[in-house]
Amino acid sequence: MVADEQWMTFLTLVLPFLAAAVAPLLTRVLGHNAAWVLAVVPAFIFLHFTGFLGSVASGEPIAGGYPWIPSIGVEFSWYLDGLSLTFALLISGIGTLIILYSGGYLRGHPHQGRFFSFILMFMGAMQGLVVADSFLMLFVFWELTSIASFLLIGFDHSREAARRAALQALIVTCAGGLSLLAGLLVIAAATGTSSLSSLLAAGEGLREAPVYFAALLLVLGGAFTKSAQFPFHFWLPNAMEAPTPVSAYLHSATMVKAGVYLVMRLNPVMGETFAWETILPVFGGTTLIAGTLLALRQTDLKLMLAYTTVASLGLLIMLTGFGSEVAVEAAVLYLVAHSMFKGALFMVAGAIDHETGTRDIRKLGGIGKAMPITFAAAVLAAFSMGGLPPFFGFLAKEEIYAGLAAGSSWGVLLTLTAIAGNALMFAIGFAVGLKPFAGARGETPKHPHEGPVLLWLGPAVLAASGLLASLLSGLSHHFVSSPMASAVIGAPVEVTISWVPHLGMPLLLSALTVALGIAFYATLERGRGTMAAVLAAIGWGPDRGFDQLVRGTIRCSAAVTRTVHNGRLDIYMTVTFIVLAICLLVPMVSYGELPSMPVLEQLRIYEWAVLAIALIGVAAVVYARDRLTAIACLGIQGFAVALLFMLLGAPDLSFTQFMVETLSVVILALVMTRLRLYPADHRPASQKLLDFSVSSLCGLGFFLILLRVVQTPFDPSLSTFFAENSRVIAHGRNIVNVIIVDFRGLDTLGEISVVMIAGLAILALVRVRVGKSREKAIQEEART
Amino acid sequence: MSTLIFRTTAPYLTSLMILFSLFVLLRGHNDPGGGFIGGLIAASAFAIYGIACGVPAARRALYFHPMAISGFGLLLAGLSGVVSLFLEVPFLTGIWTSINVLGISVDISTVLGFDTGVYLVVVGSITSIALALEERGHP
């Protein structure tokens, strides 16, 4: 039974990827209705995970896995406690609605199948990320979500803005991913564990480790880039280039919360330190205020929502870092509430765009009558976002104030931040959820009417569940909020807040927030104008900074390339040979390993003759009038060496040497004819002197090292082995060839691959020139 | 370079050299020779043919693109190594068997396939370089 369950969980982890593989085909057959079939996958995953609710709520996490690379202790393992399970349910639950919504939103799009495929791929990656137990698995899925996000943002790849946004998101989040990897490695080295569950079980160790601070910074580097914290927030609004289902799913409900997930996950082992409780609230608070202020400035519905998402992520980070139990509970409630209302509002924005042809808030108005269901969903979601009772957002807001307002001056500061942020988000929530539907009819490119069921089902379900979760707060707390908060805190806690307002500090602050929010809503136009003026005055932002960074990197690498890779062959050759000479001579001299004077053996007369031929060849190379002669003379020297090999009893070597010499002379000569050099050598005397000294040094180096090699005592065990076994084992008398094709076959396989690749490369080089000259010939032909 | 004598003798020289290269390839296991040397000989044969009779003629004679020959050689060498896996011995272990051709027992082995692969890779790569260079030498 346990094995069965383990297998099922494994299946849920790979199922999205399998579905991604068949999605394009399915869409080709069924058109946009493929959404109904594909949505079964996340729905099934959702149901499977619901089955774990009881067990997790009673405090028993689900763990399982299979060995992945057992030799280095890497496992494909998962760990589902309240935190992971809530995330998994959000991903699969909202994922189901998003798939359906995409079916309607991208209906008739030529690449709808590809879109389904990408979004399912993302779903699988995100699912893996939140349930992953081993660090490596966490990292792999973390980067996979970045890649999936890249593909989805750049989905409309014919537009430059989409390509830029995709690349920007990829660079920022992948850089963060690398930082996370480094952080995880530091943690693994410091604690000796490589899985989250054992890290959580190990307890205090990490906080006291000397590398704690480094690990914290690295991990936060990953979390802050993924969760778009200031000053890395800029990629998220740009990511709105993606189709709206992507914005709703990746860039509000799930992926951008991965950073929050990570911070929450590590809270029990890394939290409650001074650094943690300073860095997180400061960055989170700054992000909250910056996000809401920037949202004011926007007129595009999606961009307004995107900046409030940035702000919400800041709020979540701030709450998690505050350190009190109630603040963590607030973060948990707000996270769940935000996923629901923001997902719904994004889908509403998409539906409005789809039906009216514009997302500009200044043009929209009075479409509520034409789109009643969308309108209802939007208002419900906006109520939740504004934190009005009896919606889930209200519970979250009450808990936020209850958590922050407890005492210290630090808490007061953060409370003020939260009030300002929440009030601004209230205003923007209603600007998106109410303004386009109410008031006088605006001029829109298309005549609006209610979209198909696929378009309104998602937002309606999400908005309604925001209300239901609050009305049935006992149930939702028992199964979701309490287990999740317990997992984040690291000790069992009970979330009790309900939608019935209780008089007290939190309610007063909520009322203040609402009052402020209404005031902001009423003066939205003026606020926008002011913000626009302020931003214009500042002029520079991280978004432009990113461009400058990229441009600077390109310019810097171009400069380095120009210096190092200047395109002059003679300089490359000189540098190469100087390095070679240094490598040969310096170690030999500095370690005192110079060869002793060799004993000259009595050479036969024909051996002298061959040596003389070689010397004559070399002399001829130096004194040759033109280059072609020099190359041919180089061949003389090579042939003489081949003869020597023959005389000394190495026929194979000599044979090969003959062939290689012949071919290199031929090929060198052919190259010479192509290069169109002057036939004679016109180097100035100083250049000649330099080249002469470099080549003499190289020659001397080789001479000395070879001499030294033959003077070391020879270990014959290898040659004896080959001599004894080549006939017996490999059935061959020619030891050299047996070594090449049998004993050292793998080496040879590698070598012939290199030969072939080198051939291909040379062919490509030669072709480049041929291609150009052919073009010229064609042009000349055309002229005549 | 394409003098009358050279042009006339080159085809004979080429065919002799190719025949010789095959001989060198096959005798390699017991006597000096082998795929690498054989490949070099055959490559120079094609280079000579290209110089004498022109690159198009050499390409026609080769029929396949030389790089394709090279690729096939690499594939052949790799596959020869795979054979041993089916007999549950390590990759590239030589497998030997004897077949009877016209009453004479001939030993063949995966090693021969491997060596032939080496031969083809060398022939293909060097020939394609040489022919590509010759192509522009004679515009």
UniProtKB/TrEMBL annotation, chain A:
Gene Ontology MF annotations: antiporter activity
Domain (MrpA C-terminal/MbhE) ranges: 688-767
Predominant location category: membrane
UniProt record, GO biological process: monoatomic ion transport
InterPro entries reported in the protein's UniProt record: CPA3_Na-H_Antiporter_A, MrpA_C/MbhD, MrpA_C/MbhE, ND/Mrp_TM, Proton_antipo_N
Membrane spanning residue stretches: 6-27, 34-56, 76-101, 113-130, 136-155, 167-191, 211-236, 248-266, 278-296, 303-324, 330-352, 373-392, 412-432, 453-475, 503-524, 571-591, 603-623, 630-649, 655-677, 689-710, 752-770
Localization (cell): Cell membrane; Membrane
Annotated Gene Ontology cellular component terms: plasma membrane
Membrane-protein topology: Multi-pass membrane protein
Domain (MrpA C-terminal/MbhD) ranges: 613-676
Identification of the protein by name: Monovalent cation/H+ antiporter subunit A
Pfam families assigned to the protein according to its UniProt record, in alphabetical order: MbhD (PF13244), MbhE (PF20501), Proton_antipo_M (PF00361), Proton_antipo_N (PF00662)
Limits of the NADH-Ubiquinone oxidoreductase (complex I) chain 5 N-terminal domain: 68-116
Keywords: Antiport, Cell membrane, Ion transport, Membrane, Transmembrane, Transmembrane helix, Transport
Domain NADH:quinone oxidoreductase/Mrp antiporter transmembrane residues, every copy: 132-416
PANTHER family associated with the record: NA(+)/H(+) ANTIPORTER SUBUNIT, NA(+)_H(+) ANTIPORTER SUBUNIT A
NCBIfam families xrefs: PRK12647.1
Automatic annotation (TrEMBL), chain B:
Upper lineage: Bacteria, Pseudomonadati, Pseudomonadota, Alphaproteobacteria, Hyphomicrobiales
Similarity annotation: Belongs to the CPA3 antiporters (TC 2.A.63) subunit B family.
Keyword Transmembrane helix part of the UniProt annotation: yes
Membrane-spanning segments: 12-29, 35-57, 69-96, 116-133
A GO CC term assigned to this protein in UniProt: plasma membrane
Bilayer topology: Multi-pass membrane protein
Assigned keywords, A-Z: Cell membrane, Membrane, Transmembrane, Transmembrane helix
Protein's UniProt name: Na+/H+ antiporter subunit B
Residues annotated as domain Na+/H+ antiporter MnhB subunit-related protein: 5-127
Compartments where located: Cell membrane
